[in-house]
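Subject: Interface between my chains keeps coming out wrong

I've been trying for a while to get a sensible model of this assembly. When I model each chain on its own everything looks fine, but I need the whole thing in one frame so I can look at the contacts. Pasting all components below, labels as-is. Any help appreciated, I'm running out of ideas.
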Amino acid sequence: MGNVLVFAEHHGGKLAKAALISVQAGKLLATRSGVECHAIVLGKGIEPLANELAEYGVAKVYAAEDGAFEHYTADAHAAALAQIVKEKGFETLLAASTAVGKDLLPRVAGLFEVGMASDVLHFNDDGTMTRPMYAGNVIATVSLDSNPRVISVRTTAFDAATKDASKGSVEKISVSLPATATRTKFVEFSETKSDRPSLTDARIVVSGGRALKSGENFKTILEPLCDVLGAAMGASRAAVDAGFVPNDLQVGQTGKVVAPELYIAVGISGAIQHLAGMKDSKIIVAINKDPEAPIFQVADYGLVADLFKAVPELTEEIRKLKAS
Amino acid sequence: MKVLVTVKRVPDPNATIRVKPDGTGIVTDNLKYVVNPFDEIAIEEALRIKEKGGGAEVVLVSIGAKSAAEQLRTGLAMGADRAILVVAEHDLDPLAVARVLRKLVEQEKPDIVLMGKQAIDDDANQTGQMLAALLDWPQATFASKKESLESEAEKNGLPGIQLGNGRATVVREVDGGLETLELPLPAVITVDLRLNVPRYASLPGIMKARKKELKEIPIAELGTDTTPRLRVLRSDPPPKRQAGRIVESVQELVQVLHNEAKVI
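Reply #2:
Try treating it as a single job with all components included. I did that and got this:
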């Protein structure tokens, strides 16, 4: 049986956390199938990254250098991955379902004209997999009848790989790209500037709902709590629709899916739409004055209180705790 | 200029989805169906391209049961010119849908295929990228809009997708920010939530839509392999989180988070 190839994502000269998560998922799948887990890094000046990746328990890392990979484009990356999977006879191609993974993997599957499983949560012993559908309201058991099998994994469902005593080998390879690989031009990247951690990376997320009543209250009530916790700020769709905060803060099915260690929902009732985006958080705290709010059914700790009184108090208590 | 827009019939995103006890799917009794919200944004963007001039034609396509005609009528009422419904009574996986779309693209020869980034039923996020690969066209997924532009002129003047000289410039929502790509047409562009706010169909629009062409094509007529490669064997509800406990005060909350959950 053919080996598993993991596409390792990197940004700004560093391996992405998602790369280590996909390596972990790839190792699990390879062990289960009795094959080897290999990884590939595409880019410019990426040899150090390939060497680093080889320490995470993969048998082999391919380093493919090419100017066409300087900025990620689906055209160049998909063509390269398809070529390598074919040449080396890989039977599985796996990556994390990040923005890059979501853009790239279905295109590779399309080049092979094979099926794909997205956002996989778990690999079963019988070769089937589970993945969420209907905003996480359904966990589907799926089979994928394809060669190669193209699979993206949900980053919140696997741990990041840790360094292993045995170091894998690194092989430099070159790919011959078709002329169409460079037709898409990268123009620019404008980074979202924020002093807070990004929603999807944050260890703690504090989200506000419509009960905050205004954008001003997000600043005066919620921001101090975020700051004292070093948390990212999120919001419910209702708060976004009401115009309190911009859409990129939205947590939910149509917004971002987060799974931090601690999620604090402030004045959020807990619509299905919102729960879809946060219910995999490790610890959920709900602060709401309505004891019947559905958010309390998923919360580990609930506080029935007026948020305008409770949140400033909570901020102050945490500040005291941190100072002690 | 011709823009082909895909439209999927999906359960209302605000509806409660329940899994059948025997695990064979979801309970569909009394379920309300709508245009996939991301596809609605794609229709809106196509209409904006048309309204900017150049005589663009907006053609909608849906693949599915005959009942999907309802969603195509909604898109026609918003202002699309005509619609095609590929009638398929069995479930199709994203690869099969992409293969059917390839056939339609070969017939219709659009300059742009605009699609929602994902359908909110299977949440696969694959079809647009697969179609681009099958056609050997470039792709720009997750088209979005810059929100924090400095001047009013910029705010009003810069859509997330700009067209000119046979090329598209697309602002994309990616991890950690916005990326801009430039690609030659024809191309597949999939849209994200922030690109625009779709219009409602006006009453005159609804009246006009009744007279617009809606052509049905049986899927077999397209002669493409639609065997699903990805099969859903079983559907289960997600594991329930155990409801936790109600704490009495802010002090108690801080104490449990610190000593018991050890997260602060």
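Reply #3:
Confirming on my end. Chain A has eight helices and 18 strands.
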